[in-house]
Write a structure and sequence with these properties.
The complex is a heterotetramer, with two copies of chain A (366 residues) and two copies of chain B (327 residues). By secondary structure, chain A is an alpha/beta fold. Chain A contains 14 helices and eight strands. In chain A, helix 2 crosses helix 4, helix 2 packs across helix 12 and helix 6 packs parallel to helix 7. In chain B, 72% of the residues are buried. The chains are: A alpha/beta (366), B alpha/beta (327). Chains in contact: A-B, A-C, A-D, B-C, B-D, C-D. Bound molecules: thiamine diphosphate (2 copies) and magnesium ion (MG) (2 copies). Chains A, D: Its cofactor is thiamine diphosphate.
């Protein structure tokens, strides 16, 4: 029988010294002195406006799904904050490798809202718009985008470009090998890539504690030798500090960081889901008291940086913009048969050409 | 009638009965517990059998496949769910190099009595990557069984047999017909064989071979053709691997003509093997070349256009007429 | 002659020339750096082009595939090595859901000009899981190209074209013939097309269709048959996907007979599609049914018995005689 | 511009507090008081004998490969210690889920040496022998066995059995998603599984630092919430303490542990490899001075627990045993065609029966 080193504490769980960053509490009160830029306020107003717009656009998408104008849609309600921050902090030449709940960030990156609607409307052309630049399209197969992000970052390094790749994923995604393999590479190669885990506490019906036994998800970076940090994912000031510095650090060639933004999925997983089947309404009620938009609004009101009148005017403007996007989306004609065939290879192979003609014949437009 | 069930309810019932009969039957997968599966295939089973037997896993398909192999090697009869077939690719290494080979590489010392269930195919306006039908990839792998039900009754009987099977079964559920039809299930515990095709309709002019959701469009086509005086013999392959060619050959020998219908991309699809076998074995008896009606060799279009991809009643009827008028 | 090269040397030379011509060509994989690859396909390239362009990755095939997609979307032309085809299955999710679809799902906004190389097939007495030939799995996926050279000259020209290709190419190298034949390579930079089969030998009695290492046994068979007065037309498919049926059909139309040979398991293999297509298109012109000589529907046996699995010269000759004497 | 929290040390790499356990230094001198069982000595002699036997069996395998009697073989030279320890510490009813360099452990588990030779001789029946019990066969696709191990451990838990699964892998394997996904599950489900990483510093030609950026591989457990520990992998006393306690801990339902055993691959990766292409002979020379057999031999000699005469007699006995295994291996006739076909399914499907007859016809034994 071996001596029980265990009793001696050999097998203690690795001590977690992961920092947690927060500036504004759930009531919009500062918990510590704010950074200068936040005191100044104008960027905070921008963040606020971007969140409000995202939330309206999201609400519209759900409404369209309910009325049969759009298919299954995954709402970003409650987790708008990380997106508006990276959306503003990334440079145009950087590359976003998103998951599928990144509407707030994508809008700031320049993606047309009508394209986002078109995508969820079941049309590949929604991933084609010029607004995406070199950004990746939404990624549905969980965590697979992490591999792309380290590939993009490798390309930057190979070409000596001072660009950064930022990739997002959910809490559930951190269990999938793709994510972990990518962290490991970023650690060995010191790649200019930022991993942003948007921990909204649920992966469909699976709650965070059932997803991983570690106290933080950020510490998945430890095994890859990466710095890891938790941040209040409903606090744009904290997010700005953490994401902004991580991007800068990566740009300066200092390598990769894993950020876990703690937030909450206020809505159902998608419009096809019914979260009341598996989670407590009490939990959701509590989460509503911590959500990012109200929190920042309170702070801005308190500081006199934003007024109900401004809110009113802005909301009207946003609704107009959204209505325009809806119209563009709804007026987009069905794709041609060419669209379905012509993008599998740069040049259409002979066999596919014949099949295309066959399909065109069948649809009656030769 | 309240005791009639849809296909997905039949799956649920089969799982329920199998778990009641044999405590070694355990379920695992993403969202199969409290949520009952995103299509409700495992509804109520967690509350009935407890969390030791109905296990919500972390989000990791490779892990799901790997641990299922481990459980099966220990003599459990695990039934894993992959939420959509579009996410089955991460299981391929485990399926090909382990599940399919465990018995062979240990010459029977260990085995792998597992079932991997996945909803598959298009037609429900699902998000990107949620409409795959790549059964051909699995059918090529020696050691696997690939089974596809096309009705509630067959879902029940085939799934019971799949769970009984001492070897790994990939059980693909055509989600397009999860809820389109209700049937009274057969006697509790009744099984359907995993080594035969089902002849759904007898006929004399042409043999129509298909599986899964396409059975529905084929049945429609049979009705249309019957009105036109054409007698079609309709075969539901059901078990794609190992393939029961006897039934298909016997029917085609009788009719002299055959049309194969599937949703997956045509090239290198399951239809190719069936067609090749018919041609090889019945070359001198065929009255006309075998025809394939299948998906085009393109990625299943995102949902606005998916209906134009999936073989429909019209394409099937035309193909059968073509086949009948040849030579 | 010292400037003659083996197939694996031709691969090395093609990589070398492509890297010299275009700085966007980069290599990645396991052990491809100092070690030059376990088969030496990347020998000396790291010292020549530096570690930014010849990257030893951590041991993670899913990652390799994923990062290659990322690099390619950024406009590099990455050539990744998977050490053996037996380990390609972990790449399937990335290949199917991303590499093959990037251009289509972004309607050309992003693309995926990558090459994934892997030695494949049996016959070198390798350890378990080192002798797979599952090209059919990849051939079924719309958006991929699957290319297989069968000689040093074709390895050079096809690999140069694969690297040029604006779309993803799976480049499978038959390791059984990595070193059995030396050839003088064509002029530096010459390419071979990725959309045509190669007719290696003209003949009039029967068309023999194959690819990869089996070309060798087929050539032997052709010699034997020539002595017996049988004139065989030998076609090396080379690009499995997209498939150039024109060449195969034209030849079979001429000879009226066709035998297909491949090493992979017969059922649901590439041979099924080729056979089905010939039958479909030439039904009324064929003098005899198309025959397939292929691996059995079993896992490639571990090496003591592998030679009994791989189609040999004898099985090919018998099949051709059978084909000639039918009906 | 965000405040540079970085300067403030936000992005420090997670502090590593991974313990490293060692009792005997490279010269066989105790570095700390030894546990009682080691003072007593008889188990140490058993460990020693098991390592010597493994090394001889390994040497023989290489010799057979060189003379064309066996195919590619991966030597365990230098890393015999972890195997003999888990081989003795696991109970028969436990399950070993090995990788492919586990000859030392497999011999102690009861696997016939002739079966091990038969396996590397290219014959599936080498994985079939009754000596394996319920243990898994060698696993060649790197890290895939980790998934099996957590599956086996899950089965134990489901059936309320007090059994343990132990799985081994190399340093390279820790980069593969399979390994990391399995750790994560073991962490959430608190499974009775021990992960033993045999870090022999090389994954074919890829050295440990190029495999992972973290200071230890053990800390990959951190992200899964698992205790992690490093141990001198050439020191059977330390290995006994760590592996033994980990197994016991798991058996008691306290969950899983990640152990990184630091050792060295003294030989080529396999007989098909030539390590001089990529590694320094100086490094190998140094590693020889730290190898486990000599180290323990010195200690046993010093303590008077083992003599040159005993060594001599034992070596002769071992060589005889090995010779017998070689003979059994070499006399094993080729498998029948039935063997190739009959184990794909419990009952041979009709189509396969026809193919089997065809092959039998071809081989001339109807
Ligand atoms: C590989 C893969 N497996 C399963 C799914 C089905 N699925 C879609 S979202 C989801 C949960 C994701 O949870 P999380 O990563 O936390 O992101 P969230 O949706 O909560 O933002 C699952 C299981 C998928 N899309 N991809
Ligand atoms: C999935 C997979 N990829 C690649 C290989 C080829 N290969 C065999 S051993 C090896 C290195 C393994 O290194 P490590 O895990 O450190 O174990 P070691 O051989 O050093 O004991 C590689 C790349 C494989 N067997 N499986
Ligand atoms: Mg989540
Ligand atoms: Mg190693």
């Amino acid at each position: 029988m071996p001596t029980t080193l265990d009793g001696g504490g050999l097998f203690r769980v690795h001590e977690s010294d992961i920092p947690f960053v927060c500036y504004l509490d759930a009531n919009g009160q500062p918990t510590q002195p704010l950074p200068g830029w936040a005191e100044e306020g104008s960027l905070l107003v921008d963040y606020y406006k971007a969140m409000v717009k995202a939330r309206e656009a999201d609400r519209k998408a759900i409404a369209m799904q309910r009325t049969g104008v759009m298919g299954t849609y995954p709402s970003c309600l409650g987790q708008e904050a990380p997106g508006v921050v990276y959306g503003k902090q990334l440079k145009k030449e950087d590359v976003l490798v998103p998951y599928y709940r990144d509407l707030p960030g994508q809008l700031l990156r320049g993606v047309e809202l009508s394209d986002i609607y078109l995508y969820w409307g079941g049309d590949e052309r929604g991933s084609a718009g010029p607004g995406y630049g070199q950004d990746f399209p939404n990624c549905v197969p969980i965590a697979t985008q992490a591999g792309h992000a380290v590939g993009v970052a490798s390309a930057f390094r190979i070409r000596d470009e001072h660009r950064v790749a930022l990739t997002t994923c959910g809490d559930g995604a951190t269990s999938k090998g793709d994510f972990l393999e990518a962290l490991n590479l970023a650690g060995v190669w010191q790649l200019p890539v930022v991993f942003l885990v948007v921990n909204n506490q649920w992966a469909i019906s699976v709650p965070r504690p059932i997803q991983c036994g570690a106290p933080t998800l950020a510490q998945k970076g430890a095994g890859a030798g990466l710095p890891c940090v938790q941040v209040d994912g409903n606090d744009v000031i904290a997010l700005h500090e953490v994401i902004g510095s991580a991007i800068e650090r990566a740009r300066q060639g200092k390598g990769s960081v894993v950020i876990e933004a703690i937030t909450y999925r206020l809505g159902d997983h998608t419009t096809a889901d019914d979260a009341t089947r598996y989670r407590d309404s009490e939990e959701v009620r509590k989460a509503w008291s911590e959500e990012p938009v109200k929190r920042l609004q309170t702070y801005l009101h308190n500081r006199g940086l934003w007024s109900p009148e401004q809110e009113q005017a802005y909301l009207e403007q946003v609704k107009l913009e959204i209505q325009q996007a809806v119209e563009i989306y709804q007026k987009t004609p069905l794709p041609q048969v060419d669209d379905l065939f012509d993008y599998h290879y740069k040049d259409l192979p002979a066999g596919l050409r014949r099949q295309k003609e066959e399909m065109q014949g069948g649809l009656g437009h030769e | 009638m309240s005791d009639k069930k849809t296909l997905v309810e039949a799956v649920n019932t089969a799982l329920d009965h199998a778990m009641a009969d044999d405590k070694d039957v355990v379920l695992l997968g993403e969202d199969i517990g409290a949520n009952g599966g995103v299509f409700r295939a495992t509804q109520d089973l967690k509350s009935k059998y407890g969390l030791k037997r109905v296990m919500d896993t972390p989000l990791a398909e490779t892990l799901i496949a790997g641990m299922t192999v481990g459980m099966a090697a220990q003599g459990l009869k695990p039934v894993a769910e992959i939420q959509f077939m579009g996410f089955i690719f991460a299981c391929m290494e485990q399926l090909v190099t382990h599940a399919a080979r465990m018995r062979n590489r240990t010459r029977g010392r260990l085995s792998c009595p597992m079932v991997l269930r996945a909803p598959f195919g298009g037609g429900i306006h699902a998000p990107e990557h949620h409409s795959e039908s790549t059964e051909a990839l699995l059918a090529h792998i020696p050691g696997l069984r690939v089974v596809i039900p096309s009705s509630p009754v067959r879902a029940y009987g085939l799934l019971r047999s799949a769970i009984d099977s001492p070897d790994p079964v990939i059980f693909l559920e055509p989600k397009r017909i999860y809820r389109v039809q209700k049937q009274t299930l057969p006697e509790t515990g009744s099984r359907l064989p995993l080594d035969t095709c089902f002849t759904l309709r007898e006929g004399s002019d042409v043999t129509l071979v298909t599986w899964g959701a396409c059975v529905r469009e084929c049945q429609e086509a049979c009705n249309t053709l019957a009105e036109q005086g054409v007698s079609v013999e309709l075969i539901d392959v059901a078990t794609i691997k190992p393939l029961d060619m006897e039934t298909i050959l016997a029917s085609t020998r009788k009719t002299g003509r055959c049309v194969i219908v599937h949703e997956a991309a045509r090239s290198f699809g399951v239809g190719a093997e069936i067609a090749a076998r018919i041609f090889e074995d019945l070359f001198f008896e065929l009255k006309a070349p075998v025809k394939r009606v299948a998906g085009y060799d393109i990625t299943m279009p995102y949902y606005r256009m998916e209906e134009h991809y999936i073989p429909d009643h019209k394409r099937i009827v035309i193909a059968i007429h073509d086949c009948l008028t040849e030579p």
